[in-house]
Structures are given as C-alpha cells and as structure tokens.
Amino acid sequence: MNIRSAVAFVLLAASSAAWAFHCPVDMKKIDDAMAAGPKLSMAQMEEVKKLRAEGEALHKAGGHQASVDTLAKAMKILGI
C-alpha cells in the first residue's frame, strides 16, 4: 500500500466517523425544537416526525450521509 492510498483511507475513515457523530446532534436539535412546540401545520409536524425517524434509521444502518441529508430536511421545516 503506498502512502497516498494510506492517507486516502485514513481521511475516508475520519470523515465517516465525523458524519456518524453529526447524526445524533441533528436528531437532538430536532427533538428540542419539537419539544418547544413549533408553530407548524399538522402536515409539517407529520413530515418532520417522518424525516426524523427515517434519519435515525439511516444512521443506525450506517448511512450517515443520507441520514444527515434527511435530518437537514426536517431541520429546514423547523427553521433550524
């Protein structure tokens, strides 16, 4: 294994770990915003709940980038 391959591998592993940590932080932001009683329509509330659950499932399955993207949609609806 050459030096470039080793560096690329380390960077990839580090970025995956960073995304893995990011998911729970986003989920907590969503949970806190929902607990504060946001002024959303019922449809928006259901969409946020759906996206939050989907984001958690993706995180648990190891799909961290997809989880972050999904949770970002919920945060956008919440305005956070």
Low-confidence segments, given as residue ranges, are: none
Ends distance? 44 Å
Largest sheet: none
Task: Please indicate the count of domains.
Answer: 1
How large, in whole angstroms, is the Cα Rg? Answer: 16 Å
**Shape category:** elongated
The number of distinct helices, counting runs of at least 4 residues, comes to 3
Helix/strand-derived category reads: mainly alpha
**How much strand?**
under 5%
Q: Mean pLDDT score, rounded?
A: 85
Helix content: over 70%
Order of helices and strands: HHH
* Quantity of strands, as a count: 0
Characterization of this structure:
The chain has one domain. The chain is 84% helix and 0% strand. It is built from 3 helices and no strands. Helix 1 runs antiparallel to helix 2 and helix 1 packs parallel to helix 3 (64-78).
List keywords for this structure.
80 residues, mainly alpha, 3 helices, 0% strand
Q: How do you describe this structure in short?
A:
This protein is an all-alpha fold and 80 residues long. It is 84% helix and 0% strand.
